Structure formats: structure tokens, C-alpha cells
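User: I'm putting together a teaching handout on how sequence relates to shape, and I'd like one worked example. Could you take Diguanylate cyclase from Paractinoplanes aksuensis, show the sequence you're using, and then write out its predicted structure as C-alpha cells right after it?

Assistant: Happy to. First the sequence, then the C-alpha cells directly below it.
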Amino acid sequence: MRRGRGWTGLLLVATVLATGGAVTIAAYDIVDSGEERYAAQVMDRYADDLSAAVSDRAGRYSETVSDLAAAVGAQTDLRKDDFVRITATLDGARLPGAAGITFVVPAATPEVPAVQRYWRERGAEKLRLLPARGVPTHDFVVFERTFDSVTDTAGIDLAQRPQAGEVLRTAQASGRPAISPAYRLIRDDRLAATARQTSVSFAAPVYSGLGSSAPDVFKGWIVMPVRGQDFMAHTLLDRGQGAVQAELTESGGSHAVLASALPGRRVSDETLVRQRALTVGQRHWEVTLWPTTRLLSATNRGMSRFTLAAGAALTLLLCLMTAVLTGSRNRALQQVDEATAELRHDIARRESVEAQLREREQELHHLAFHDPLTGLANRMLFYDRLTHAVATHSRIGGQLAVLFIDLDGFKRVNDEHGHHAGDLVLRTVAERLRASLRASDTVARFGGDEFAIILQDIASDGDARAVAERIIADVRKDIDVHGEVAQVSTSIGIAVGHSGRTAEDLIREADVAMYAAKSGGKDQYVTA
């Protein structure tokens, strides 16, 4: 009898051990799968946001060279003064990474003296063309506007670099802006080896006779050389927020690295690596993202291990309790009570863990759709709300407006007071923007010192202008920066939505209007 009861007790203990192990493993699998799924979703959001930011910036640069090419082509007799006037509003602050703007013309070897004489007569008095050896045709820089310390690039022959020649031929053949393969800029030969970067060039063909009855005549190219790391590093770091490492490479044969942002410590988890392919300026780029320990910490990847440890501990405890129960009925009853209390405590603890997971998920969701510095909506949430607002107003009628805002003088605040002061100015401006709007309106930070606003259900265009005037007045007020006074102003572009206008149309028109406000003297608004 005693032997039978002993075997029965051992069998009961074994059953409890097997059941508890199975439940623990199942719980671990559920929590671990949830953590992996959530981390994957976060990586997908980062990948989509970063690839969209890269594509947007490259598109803006392509539009810039295209607009400059059109402006240059519109000149009946282009001179250096015309080129200086056309490019006067551009600088390295508006075009991060750009080394300058150049006007390039083609010439065969026998034509070099005549071409040099022609452009000297049109304002480039000191122009000296330096043809590359061993090539039948040349691509000379005749006018330049530099944004960096490298000057006197006029006269160089871009045919020295096959990649530069390739983008010129591509732009001419297609009649559209193009981007070169990755290469080292000729102008960077003058820099120290440690200062040289992998770069690309944006190019657009220049035609005269546009808009007239005369046939279009090819004149040359507008070329913008851009250093890759300077071009994209700020965007990669700003969008990645230290949670991911990112790398922008050129697809195809070279796989050259154009830019990279490598904060934190990378985690070896291939399932979370994300890649996005981009097509910009007739070139193919690829954005690759890796998770860091900061991202895994933010997604509570340690909770699955905690669940496994807690489940194993509970299983062993139940086994011990079952063994004790076989020895004494009274003690068994007492152990059952203790086990019940422990089980309730464990359930409460698991509920607490689940509550923490839900809270962390809400925090991450807020982080994914809001700017961490100002608390405003970010670019992704702004696009979502604008798309919804356009669809709603198209269905039920009414008007809405988009305001694109850029701060004037913000770089001066950073230079004179430091980046901490810049952050304080951005938060103060964000508070003033919120205070100037209704609860139904949306204000977002697009990055840097750019903001955007959605005004819903406005009665007329005048409502949007009234809001713009109020914002200009509020932002212009002095800002206390640790006992010192800082002041910024705003340039605002307004686009009013009507039937048939898409969200992209409104954003693009507001952006163009904002640049017009800046070009027209700043501290004002312009309506598209």
C-alpha cells in the first residue's frame, strides 16, 4: 500500500512537472512571438520613414536643378551676371551636402579655344579651360556658385570622371534630371584624404527656346555635386533616433556606401534587418537598417525570458507542493492554500507585466507618430491626417488649407547660443503654434526647423491668411534662452484645398509658396 501510494505520488509529481513545463513553454512562445512581431513592426516603420525621407530629399534636389536649368535656358544671351542672379538664393544651408551649383557646356577638342573666348566675352573674364587628355569631347564648367571652401573650379573638365560624364549623357538623352553613380568629386582632389567622401552629382539639361515657336536648342547642363555623407547623415540620424543603424548604398555593380549612421550597438538578429529599394533621378539606391540594443530594450525583449524563468520557478514550486501533499493530508491542505495564494500572486504579476507591455506599446506608438522634441505630430501622422481630411472634405464639401512653415534665423540661434538653445526655441515655437490653432487643427514638425499645419473646415481663404498672420506675430516675439533673448521669424506657404486636389498637391504647393516667401524677404506668408 505504501509502495503504491509512493508510486502514485511520483506519478503525480511527474504529471505536474510535465504540465507546468508545457504551459511555461507555451507562455514563453506567446510572449516571445509578440515581442518579435512588435519589434518587426517598429523596424518596418523606421524603414518606411527613412526611405521616404531619402526619396523626398533626393526629389527636392532634382527639382532644384530642373528649375535652375529652366531659368538658365530662358535667358536669350546667358551671361555670368544672369547665372549669379539665378543662383543667388541658394546656399549650403538650404541644400545640405551640396558643394555648389555649376553650369557645364560641351565642347569637342578643336572647339576649346572658341568656347573659352565665347564665355569670357559673357562675363567669365578669367576662364581658362583645362581639357582632359585622351578624350574627344569635353564637359567644361564655365560658371560656378560654390557652397564650400573649394573655389576656382571653373574651367575643369568633368570628362576626367566617367561617372560625371555618364550622368550628363543620361540627362541629355532623357531630357530629365538624373543622378550620377557614386564617385569622388574632382573638386575634392584638393582636400585631405580624410575629408573626401563618396559623392554623387545631380544634373539637368539646359535648352534655350523654351516657350517660343523656335526649336529647342541644347546648351549644356546645370550640375549640383553633392557629398553623400553630408547629404544624408542628418536625415538618417534624425529619423533613426538612435534606435537603428542605417546605411544608404548604391544598387547595382558598385554597391558604394553613400552615407551611414551608426549610433549605439548593433544587434545580430537577421530577422529584424530591413532593406528598402529606392529609384531617384534614374538611379537605384538601397536603404538598409539594423536594430540596436536601444530598440530591443524599448520593445521589452526581456519579458519572454522573465516569463520562462517565472514559469519554471512556478512549475518547480508546484512539484514540491505536490510531493509534500502526498505525506500529510493536513499539511497538503495547508500547502494547497499557500500554492493558491502564490498562484494568485503570479497571476497578478503576469497581469502587471501585460499592463506594462500595453503601456510600452502605447509609448512606442506615440513615439512612432510624434516628434520626440516638441511632442507635435511627425511627418507620418501629418500625411495620414491630411489624406483623411482631403477625402472627408471631398465627400462632404467645405475647404481646408495646408500651411508650410520654415523658421527664419534659426541657424543664427544655434550658432550664437548653442544647440540646447535651438531645442528650446523649437519647443517654444511649437507651443505658440498650438496656442494659435483650434483643437480640430493639426500642427506637425517635419524635421529641423520646418513645421506644417492642417486647417480644417475654413470658411474662405481669408481664414488661412488670418491664421498665418497670427502665427507670424506670435513667433516673432522674444524668446528667453537662459537669460538671453533670441528671436526668430517665420516664412509661411499657404495652399488651400479645393475639389480634385490631393494631399501631395497641397504639400507641394505649400512648400513652393514657403520658398517664395523666403525668397521674397522672409517674415511673411505667400498663398499658392
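A couple of points you could highlight for students: The mean pLDDT is 86. The first strand starts at residue 100 and ends at 108.
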